[in-house]
Amino acid sequence: MKKLLSKVLFLTISSTLLFTSCEDDEEKVVNNGLVVGEWELMGYSATYERVVTVPAGEDKSQRYKHVVDWDANGDAATAAFFQAIGGTSSPAYLGASQTLIDVGDGENVPGFPRTLNLPNSAALTGFGVDLELVTEDAPAKGEDATYKVTGTYPTVRQADCQTTITVASITDQGLYKVDVDKNGNAKLGNFMIQPDPTLGGAVLAPFMDGTYTITEGVEGSAEPHDQMNIKYLDRDGHDARYSEVQSTWNETDDRVIQGYGNVFNDANGNIAGADPNPAVLNPAYTGGYLLNPAIPAFWGSQFTFYFYNISVQTAAQAQDAKNPLTDLDGDGTIGAGDMIVFMHYDNLAGGGGKTAFGVPFSVLVDSSNPQQPVPVNDSDRVFSGANAGAGGKMYFKVREAVCVPTNELIDIDSYWERIEDHEGHDHS
């Protein structure tokens, strides 16, 4: 009897240990391997490609123009001067208007492609970006698992036809798969996510062909925590390539708009031809002065009143039936250089010529050296109608905001560090 009882006890204990051991082994199985866990964003790079795309059904030949007009900038005397030359609808006024942007279908949006690069935690913090990713395990290899992203992230947004790079809050949940392709075939290193309305997430763009790599941390080393790199292409804002990630395209909801309302200014108040800081893209000015390398250095490459006078007079003199402008500087063309020589000759002859604005030729061109006319540089001052003859830099203001429809692709490269290592799990 004692032997029988011993055998029963032994078998009972053995089976319990075996059952417990099996349970422990099952608990250690992690179907998604090292991906499972809590991760903190440590680096982020996004390259934005935006191409002008006229929506279906609209005139494909239309152009999107961002125009600036001569502006009084609060100076009552300059506003009165505008009225004296015929008002803001007159050729004398509108002749100064400049087109900063002129784009059409299929052309790159000015300033794009552009890259927002936040390579480390300091850069992320400085930009206000803080993201945490939680990746749950899948019930079986190759099956859907849940992810959750919370925090703040960088994004390019448009409102009232003005595009800016900003930081937005996110709480997003969806489904992810690793190491299989969209058809369910094994593909090591593949990373896919899909929104799931039942989980309430729809912020992150879906993708089927992202990639991931994980470098395991070494305790006591400079990198004790696991590092994960996730790369993917966001194409849900592209009216042709959306079909690679989603089933339908909604022109109203999915079309990306590049807005031009304000302008960038440099430290001297000049309208910048491009964003001085690619990481910002937050133009804050409605106008400024125009600095253009195409404008001769005579006027400091600034759009000044004297430069404008000579430009206007060049066009008028070229059409003068009695004394048309000819190639006086011998460069084979008829332009501002010839007008400068024309004014010089008039000064030497004491002709007393004046421009259409009433500015004497002798004010615009220094003829003290008979052999060398020199245009007078008025870029060191600001134009005011109170003393128009003194010239100066002219101020320009945005005429109206312009909304440009585009196709967008975003190439994203993100780096994550594990917050919590799931010790005791078999990351197989």
Please summarize what this structure is.
The chain is built from 8 helices and 17 strands. The chain has 428 residues and is an alpha+beta fold. Among the domains are: 32-51 and 108-259 and 406-420; 296-398, no CATH class.
Helix-strand topology string: HEEHHEEHEEEEEEHEEEHHHEEEE
Helix content: 10-25%
The percent range for strand residues is 25-35%
Helix count, DSSP H or I runs of 4 or more residues: 8
> What is the overall silhouette?
elongated
Rg measurement, Å:
34 Å
List keywords for this structure.
428 residues, alpha+beta, eight-stranded antiparallel barrel, five-stranded mixed β-sheet, 8 helices, 17 strands, 19% helix, disordered N terminus, disordered C terminus
Descriptive report:
The chain is of the alpha+beta class and about 425 residues long. Among the domains are: about 30-50 and about 110-260 and about 405-420; about 295-400, no CATH class. It contains eight helices and 17 strands. The strands form three sheets. Strands 1-5-6-7-8-9-10-17 form an eight-stranded antiparallel barrel. Strands 3-2-16-13-12 form a five-stranded mixed sheet, with no helix packed on it. The two termini are about 45 Å apart.
List the helices and strands and how they pair.
Blueprint: H1 2-28, E1 37-52, E2 63-70, H2 76-84, H3 91-94, E3 98-104, E4 114-118, H4 121-127, E5 130-135, E6 145-158, E7 163-180, E8 186-195, E9 207-215, E10 227-234, H5 251-254, E11 256-260, E12 270-271, E13 287-290, H6 305-318, H7 336-349, H8 361-364, E14 365-366, E15 374-375, E16 395-398, E17 402-420
Parallel strand pairs: 12-13
Antiparallel strand pairs: 1-4, 1-5, 1-17, 2-3, 2-16, 5-6, 6-7, 7-8, 8-9, 9-10, 10-17, 11-17, 13-16, 14-15
